[in-house]
Design brief:
The protein is mainly beta. It has one helix spanning 2-34, and strands at residues 44-62, 70-73, 83-95, 99-115, 120-121, 126-127, 132-152, 156-177, 186-208, 213-222, 226-239, 242-260, 264-283. It has one helix and 13 strands; from the N terminus they run αβββββββββββββ.
């Protein structure tokens, strides 16, 4: 009798353990289902982003002294690192069923001290080959937009955005330059900068493959400036309120800066960055 009772107790224990395991596996799926397919019904979201970007940037300058356009490649000529970790932050909030507001931004700095491999003529000051220069390149962007979803279902959402975009791009060169061969070298600082708020439009979209997996896409275009940013990715919802995303982001920008002062000076700044992007998103 004691052996039979022991066997029955062991059998009940195994059944209870199996039931506990089943409930443990079922609870996350049930929670995701309650929050809607892919979390498309979440009202507020906050995303932390980190991109491993391959970067190419340059500056052109034509001004009062020569009027000729000279080009400087920041990575090749000035030794600025061609790869960087680019952090970003994005916030979104739904207003009603189809309307939303979005705010996002990035900021990072690259710098390097290097010995020039060739003469750099920046419309007057000449940084001679063999001289040491320090270069800093700073990029800061932020955007505020309102959006409207013209497609909205339990599985898919596509909409348009309109708002304002600010891109602050600065190249600062610090070294010694001269007016030409035989002229004494003097400490020189040269800075090219673009900073201004311009209208921007965009598109966004997301599609739920399952309760846990969602495809995402975002396109931003700044009007009056040649700025475009495209990002695509996939988001895995680990919990109803926390998701981990992996994707790809590409940014292109080119800014023409014309200054009129006893003549005309034209500066051109260009910047291109692309690479994989990791995203951690909290949504409610």
């Amino acid at each position: 009798m004691q052996d039979t009772s022991t066997l029955k107790d062991a059998s009940r224990g195994r059944r209870a353990l199996a039931l506990a395991r089943a409930m443990t596996l079922a609870l996350p799926a049930a929670a995701l289902a309650q929050s809607g397919p892919g979390g498309l019904d979440q009202r507020t979201w906050l995303s932390l982003q980190m991109q491993s970007a391959s970067i190419h940037s340059s500056s052109y300058e034509a001004g009062y002294a020569t009027g000729q356009l000279s080009r400087v490649q920041n990575e090749d000529d000035l030794g600025v690192p061609g790869r960087a970790s680019v952090p970003g932050l994005a916030f979104g909030r739904r207003i009603g069923e189809r309307w939303r507001i979005e705010v996002d931004g990035t900021a990072f700095r690259r710098s390097r001290t290097t010995v020039l491999g060739r003469d750099l003529d920046l419309d007057g000051p000449i940084f001679a080959a063999g001289s040491s220069v320090r270069t800093e390149v700073f990029v800061n962007t932020w955007r505020v937009s309102g959006g409207w979803s013209f497609i909205k279902s339990d599985e898919s959402e596509v909409g348009v955005l309109i708002g304002g975009q600010n891109v602050h791009l600065t190249t600062h060169i610090d070294g010694s330059s001269s007016a030409g061969p035989g002229s004494p070298a003097t400490p020189t600082q040269r800075e090219l900068s673009n900073n201004g708020l311009v209208p921007a439009v965009g598109l966004y979209g997301q599609h739920s493959l399952t309760d846990a997996w969602t495809l995402t896409g975002h396109l931003d275009v700044a009007l009056q400036e040649k700025y475009t940013r495209l990002s695509v990715g996939a988001l895995w919802r680990m919990t109803p309120n926390l998701g981990l995303g992996l994707g790809w982001s590409h940014t292109e920008s080119r800014f023409d800066i014309t200054t009129v002062f006893i003549g005309v000076s034209r500066d051109v700044l260009s910047y291109r960055a692309s690479g994989p992007q990791l995203t951690l998103t909290a949504s409610f």
